[in-house]
Each structure stands twice: as C-alpha cells, then as structure tokens.
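Input set for joint prediction.
Command: fold jointly, output tokens.
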Amino acid sequence: MSARQIMENIYAVGAIDWDRTMFDALVPLPYGTSYNAYLIKGSDKTVLIDTVDPSKFHVLRDNLNDLGLDKIDYIVSNHAEQDHSGSIPDIMQLYPGAELVVNKKGQDILMPLMELNENRIKIVEDRETVSLGDRDLEFIFAPWVHWPETMFTYLKKDKILFSCDLFGSHLATSQLFASNSDKILLEAKRYYAEIMMPYASRIKKHLDTLSQFQIDLIAPSHGPVYDNPKMIIELYSEWISDQVKNEVIVLYVTMHGSTEKIAETLASALIRRNIPVKLLNLEVTDIGEVALSVVDAATVIFASPAVLMGPHPYIVSAAYVLNMLKPKAKYIGIIGSYGWGNKLVNQMTEFLRDLNVEFLDPLLINGYPKAEDLREIENFTEEILNRHQILLRN
Ligand code: FEO
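tokens >
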C-alpha cells in the first residue's frame, strides 16, 4: 500500500488490515478494518493525524517515506485507543522533532500505556487552534465517542473533519472515498451499533456542535473518507433519534426444536399482521449482526429454552451485550420453553436491568408448543401489534 492523496498536500497514510477477524476480542470484523492516519503538509508545519495499530507500523512508516518527508512537526492523537495511538512511540522516535498534540485526558490515558517524553507533549484545550502556516487546525473536544478523551480535529481552510472513531466503519477496502456506497453505509451502521450506540445522547450534542462547522469531507479513523458528509450525518441523526421502526427482532436459541417452533410461530403471526420481523438464531449469528439488527427496532424478543433452570448461555450473552449497548427499543419480550421449573424471566429481567423499556408479559411454554400454546402466541402477537399501533400513531 502507499500514501493516497485526498487533496493537495493532504494524504491518507494509514494501513488496511485485510485479515483481522476480531476487534478487542469482542467485535467480529467480517470485512477486516483499516487504521486511518492522515498527513497534512502546511506551508510551515507538517502534521500527522493519529497513527496506526502497532502491528501495521511498518505500513505507516513506508507511506510516510513515500512522501519524502524531512520532518513531522506535530502528531495529533485524537483518541488514545491503541489501534490509533499504538505506533506513536515509534513515530516519535523516527521523527525526533515531532511534538505529540493531545488533550489532558488523552495524555492521562496514553502515559500508562506507553513510554512518552513529557517534554515532547503539547496539551491543547477545546477549540484551540494550531497554525501550520497556510492552514489552521482546530481541536473540538468530543468526549465519549467512545472514550472520555476523544476529540475531533478540524482543518479549517479545507473544511475537513478528522472525526476519530465517530462515523467510522470496519471495512478493509482500497476505496478511498465512500461516495454513496450502500455497503459502506451499512458497515457504518454496524460500527455505530457495536461501538457508538451506548453514547447516543452524547453524539446528539456532538452533532449539534458540528452543525456550526462547514464540513466538506469527514475523514474517520476506520473505513473510507466521506465525500458526502451530509449523508452520514443524517444517518447518525436517524440512528440516535428516539424514533423506532415498526419491526421486531427475535433472538433465539433452540436445543430440541421447541423454542424454534415458538419463534417461528411468532414470526409468522407478526408477518400476518404486517409487522416486519427478523429471526436471528444465536447459535450461528455473531454479536455484531445482533447489534446491527436492533438499532431501529421497536421490539426485541429473547426466546430461550431453559438450561439448568435459567436462560441458554447464548441468550445470556446477547442480553448482557444489549444491556451495555442500550438500543432504543421500546419493548422487550421474554419467551421460551421449559421442561420443569425455570427462572428464565427473573434472570433475564436482571440481565436487562439497565434498559429503559417496557417488558411484555412473558410467554413460557412447557415442552413442545401445542394447539393452546399456539393460541397464546397469537395473543402475545396481538399485544405487540397493539403497542406498535400506538407507537406509530404518536
Ligand atoms: Fe478505533 Fe476506539 O479505536
């Protein structure tokens, strides 16, 4: 790979990681990812915006070499997580005149992670500017997207927002600009669901702040550069809003077919009532797909068999993650099957305790669903329909 020009004197110099399959041992990466870094040559000063994961330091080094730089004056650290900060020590060694530009909280997080010479750190404040000669950088603090120190860097003359993780997508592609690619926007939504969804209210404030800026390009830390920034900003505005869609997501696991029959019967009953539904079998569905699916849905159903009296571990795992991700769903349903006594409802309610939702009356069926149980599923579906109709009216 080599440095790619975004516009005159502004380059993408980061690395594509085609092979990575997991992030933070938590987030599946079905399409790899990239660690974006950007180089800006001002008339007086040259600045590197972020670095790359340490495993790809050699790519960043070679890309900078390609540009024939004799110096870097500043290395901006918008975000201290290692996929962007991990090569800072090596870059500072390679460019001994470079100062690290970071906010105080960023410094506090970076110092325990790596050896840095404090004499080479320049602390910046919110909305402070730094001149590169013919261009100015402005730093916009944006805490909690998704760490407390995160900030944006705005290149004023060229109207480029370097947004760190916000608006990113985990996508290994040689495509520099997103244009209006549906695939890239879908991966941006998956990224939002997995990383940013718990911070929806913070993001709303950041979008309000950004509305004061004219932005021609958004250059995030992962995935392509947005040359139509309005589109991704509008999508984020939709995802973080309180508005939900007339949709039900059914997360299920089955051991002997009973819970699957319940889930499929529910899906059929929803379809008959014109409620879009998506069934996700957690035995074969990764947590990223689950997160992506629940971004907009009004209702999420957990369907589990009883295992040693409690929910199946795959259901527990999904509930734990959704409790952290805090989707905007309005209703949660707990359904499933059991052979003898069970504590499914109590345990699931506890796993989901941080969600601001209404729990539907649970529906637990002893053994394989019989005719009277199927009627109960119809009644359960009517309850969902009634609630969705009220939501849609409002
Ligand atoms: Fe891409 Fe939060 O690091």
